[in-house]
Amino acid sequence: MWEKVRKFGLGYCDLPTMMWNVSVFLRLFTVNIDSKYKKGIPIFVYVAVTLSSICYYYIYLFSMLWFVFVICPQTGQTLEAMWALSLGVPSEIGTLRLFYMKLQMQFCSRDQIRSLTDDLLEFDSKTLPDHRRSRNVLKHLRDVKKRAIVLWLVIVGTGFMFIIKHFIAPEHLTDDTFAPYGFGSMEESPNYEIVAAMMAVCVTFINGFSGNMTAYIIIITGYVEAQMLAVSHELENIWKDAQDHFRTTRNLEIEINKDEAKKQRILNQYVSDRLKVIIAQHATLKQFYLKVRDVLKGFLGIAFFVLIAGLLFNLLGGLRNTYMHLPFVFLQIAMDCFIGQRMKDAGIVFSRAVYACGWENFDKNNMRMVLIMLQNSQRITVLSAGSFVNVNYKCLMATIKGSYSSYTTFESSVNK
């Protein structure tokens, strides 16, 4: 039992273990990304998720919209409406992503999510465990898992802070912005206890699924990035490896006789064999880039525009009132842009590695292969949010700037 718990830590950073980590948590939300897991998900999990979804939609969608569009216009509570929207709109990311995943897995002709997961695991199984490339991949995957753990802790921790707020200040609900429709006064029992329990369930459901889904996205993008960086390292050292290979294969006679032509043939044969392997690996990774982009464009598209709206409502509601909502919103936008930039940077690193591989020492045939690789590496695949905008650092800065500009435009209307 303890050994299984330890696998969730940084001591186990290989892809199969990380996929197992995230699949265990996602099954708690009725999502099975592991095609080899045939035990099925217990019925009580489906019941719990269904009840949590009903609670969420009742409080943070129906009651929130009722408060914003019915109560607030009557009372003139514009600022309170922004508070409610800053809580309700960003939280939609969890249910929308869950609905999108279930739609993909149950009703699409080809389950892209499980297919991508299986393809990555199969590719990883072909990597020699004691090879330098494998060690480099594991080194990068440790950073990926650290990234996933930190984001998971922040997202889930934000929800935990929301829940314990009720116990620290017992006279307050998890959120006092609005009372759910039909409950009347929250100062009366059992209204207070019922709504407090429902809000705790909603927060656990939304933050839990959002944290696990974010971890899954970080892992699949991080693995492709790690493989691309490892292949780039192999390409950069290909000429040095060829010389080491020549020295360690008993070519002393060639060195003594100064047979430079034969030496070059041996070196270039080694380079040719390695280049063919690297070209095949790069082509496979390019396919993974395209698959990851196709799978994630729906997730990122749903999340990105919802989170941008949520960020704007957080600002309009006043940070003194929405400071606990902001980490949940901003960190997910920042992480989407961060992983998009990292994948783009990995492609650029490979392109630069082509220049730095010592191609000037190769024969003409090997130079042609390097030229083909150079041409292929120029077309860098980038992640996009719903095919509308590429997610990277430039996108993050534009989002912050646009949100602040919108905030300054609408601030005077909200604070009247």
Automatic annotation (TrEMBL):
Claim: Nucleus is one of the keywords in the record: no
The keyword Calcium appears for this protein: no
Coiled-coil annotated spans: none
Any one Gene Ontology molecular-function term assigned to this protein's record: olfactory receptor activity
GO BP annotations, alphabetical order: signal transduction
InterPro entries the UniProt entry points to: 7tm6_olfct_rcpt
TM region(s), chain numbering: 43-69, 81-100, 149-168, 194-219, 295-316
A single cellular component GO annotation: plasma membrane
Entry membrane topology: Multi-pass membrane protein
Principal localisation: membrane
Family matches, as Pfam families: 7tm_6 (PF02949)
Family: Belongs to the insect chemoreceptor superfamily. Heteromeric odorant receptor channel (TC 1.A.69) family.
PANTHER family: ODORANT RECEPTOR, ODORANT RECEPTOR 19A-RELATED
Protein name, per record: Odorant receptor
Protein source organism: Trichoplusia ni
